[in-house]
Predict the structure of MFS transporter.
Amino acid sequence: MNQQRWLSQNFFMFFITWGVFLPYWTGWLVQAKELSVPEASLIMGFGLVARGVSTLFAFPFVSKFWSGQRVLLILTIGSLIATLLYIPTSSFSMLFIVTVLFSAVYPALLPAVESAATVLIQQGNIHYGKSRKYGSIGFVISVLIISMVTGHFGERAILWSMIAGLCLMLVMCLQPAPAVLLAKPMAKDRKKSLSMRGLWQVRSFPIVLLVVVLLQGAHASYYNYGFIYLQDLGVNNYSIGLILNIAVIFEILYFAKADHLFQGWKPSTLFIVAAVGSSLRWILIFLFPNIWIFMLSQSLHAVSFGIAHFAFIQYITKNLPTKQIPNAQGVYSAVALSFSTAVLTMLGGYLYEVSPGLAFLGMILFTVPVLFLLIVTRKHYEY
């Protein structure tokens, strides 16, 4: 079993579906299910809360009883079932319920794949960026396909694309996996690993967590309103797919070289770079509301997201024991990628109704303070 290849394939297949969900799901609720932007924002916001609860508690818990491969398989099956429930659903209340259920299962696949990656890195000679770039490639391919499919069949094709992607991922989960991911956790290790207390005993972890909460949460407006924003600028669906892919292309280039270019860099230094790039990105979109500046700002995704994410993976790989990796990934996914994004999605929805550009500018209220936090704490906590 080639562990590097297995990890690359699983990143690729997951991000095929993520490329359907992340940029298009809010727009799909608005266009195909005929919800208003505030209604879709409310549903997606509560979906992010459900995602946060699931990845904070449920995912780390089951990871102590099931092997990594079993967790991936069960989550994939559950995600497919939840997605199928959207087919007969049309009312606001039922869409709310189905989205909360879907959000409690599907996004948990992200920390599951990331946890598998971190375990493989600790166990062998695996390069994270080398495999993670295939996830970004899958995302690019997915967005291109969706842009063409929706251009021909309309937004209703988004749901069927997600169903097809999850079916392919299920096939992948049934393939042989690395031995370390097939091992069931030992009973004697459960009590120690079930507790998240060990995370907080690492002095720098709360600071690092706060940093990624602010940096990753600041992508809320981009993830949820980028598609609608480009439509408001008069861009057709096919071109929107191409424009959204600019960000991921730069992300691919970054992950392809990250292991070598930033091997000796401290996570705190990488976080500073990410905070500066993120602030610049949202200011540009606000100051220059046109398609060309938006396209230019897309190059900064490799900084605002890519560098911040790589810095966190680098930090937990070097500072946490293997048994705490699912806990760390669960907390990261729940708090940084869900709860903070949920709050800022609702804030962004309100600002978008006032002025689309304000939804993006509002994000610097969370990225600029990161710079001061890092400058004050990096030497004291040595991270």
In short: The radius of gyration is 20 Å. The longest helix spans residues 325-354. The chain has a mean pLDDT of 87. The domain at 3-381 is CATH 1.20.1250.20 (Growth Hormone; Chain: A;).
